[in-house]
C-alpha cells in the first residue's frame, strides 16, 4: 500500500499489525497499524486514525485535542515546557526491561501559513 507522509512524499507499507491494543494518557485504543521504516518515531497516528475518531476540536493555543470515544470525552494534551524528563540510556534500558513503554504522537500541518504549529504528545 502506498502511504502519503507529512512531508508530501510517499512510502510503501506491505505489512500490518492487526488489533493492537495501546493507551495514550490513560485512554485505551485498539487499531490496525501499518509498518513503515521511519526513524525517530514508534507510532504515527495518521489522517485515517483522526477521521476514525469523528468530530474533533483542536485548540492550538492550549495544545490539546478533544473528541468523544464510547460516549466519553477524550482530551489529549501536548507536553508543556518542563514536563519532559530526560533519562540516560541505562534508565531507558531498565524501564524497557521492566515492561515500560514510551508512546509519542506528533501532529503537524502541511499548511505553509501555519508552519511551526506542531502538536507533540508523549506518554511514558
Describe this protein's structure.
It is a single chain. This protein has 124 residues and is mainly beta. The protein has helices spanning 47-52, 89-97, and strands spanning 2-4, 10-12, 16-24, 27-34, 56-59, 64-69, 72-77, 103-107, 119-123. The protein has one domain. It contains two helices and nine strands; from the N terminus they run E-E-E-E-H-E-E-E-H-E-E. The strands form four sheets. A three-stranded antiparallel β-sheet has the order 5-6-7, with no helix packed on it. A two-stranded antiparallel sheet has the order 1-2. A two-stranded antiparallel ribbon has the order 3-4. Strand 5 (56-59) and strand 6 form a beta hairpin. Residues 120-124 have low confidence and may be disordered.
Question: How do you describe this structure in short?
Answer:
With 124 residues, the chain is mainly β. It has one domain (2-123). Helices cover 12% and strands 40% of the residues.
Characterize the largest beta sheet: strand count, sense, and whether it forms a barrel.
3 strands, antiparallel
Q: What does the overall shape look like?
A: globular
Class computed from helices, strands and strand pairing: mainly beta
What's the order of the H and E elements? EEEEHEEEHEE
Residue share in β-strands: 35-45%
Any idea how many domains?
1
> In what order do the strands lie side by side in the largest sheet?
5-6-7
Unreliable stretches covering 5 or more consecutive residues: 120-124
How confident overall, as mean pLDDT? 76
How large is the radius of gyration?
16 Å
E-strand count:
9
Amino acid at each position: 500500500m502506498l502511504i502519503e507522509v507529512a512531508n508530501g512524499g510517499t512510502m510503501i507499507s506491505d505489512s500490518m499489525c492487526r488489533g493492537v491494543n495501546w493507551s495514550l494518557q490513560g485512554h485505551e485504543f485498539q487499531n490496525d497499524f501499518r509498518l513503515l521504516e521511519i526513524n525517530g518515531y514508534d507510532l504515527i497516528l495518521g489522517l485515517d486514525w483522526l477521521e476514525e475518531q469523528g468530530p474533533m476540536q483542536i485548540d492550538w493555543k492550549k495544545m490539546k485535542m478533544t473528541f468523544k470515544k464510547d460516549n466519553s470525552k477524550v482530551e489529549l494534551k501536548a507536553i508543556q515546557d518542563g514536563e519532559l524528563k530526560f533519562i540516560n540510556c541505562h534508565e531507558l534500558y531498565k524501564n524497557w526491561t521492566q515492561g515500560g513503554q514510551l508512546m509519542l504522537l506528533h501532529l503537524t500541518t502541511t499548511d505553509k501559513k501555519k508552519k511551526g504549529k506542531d502538536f507533540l504528545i508523549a506518554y511514558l
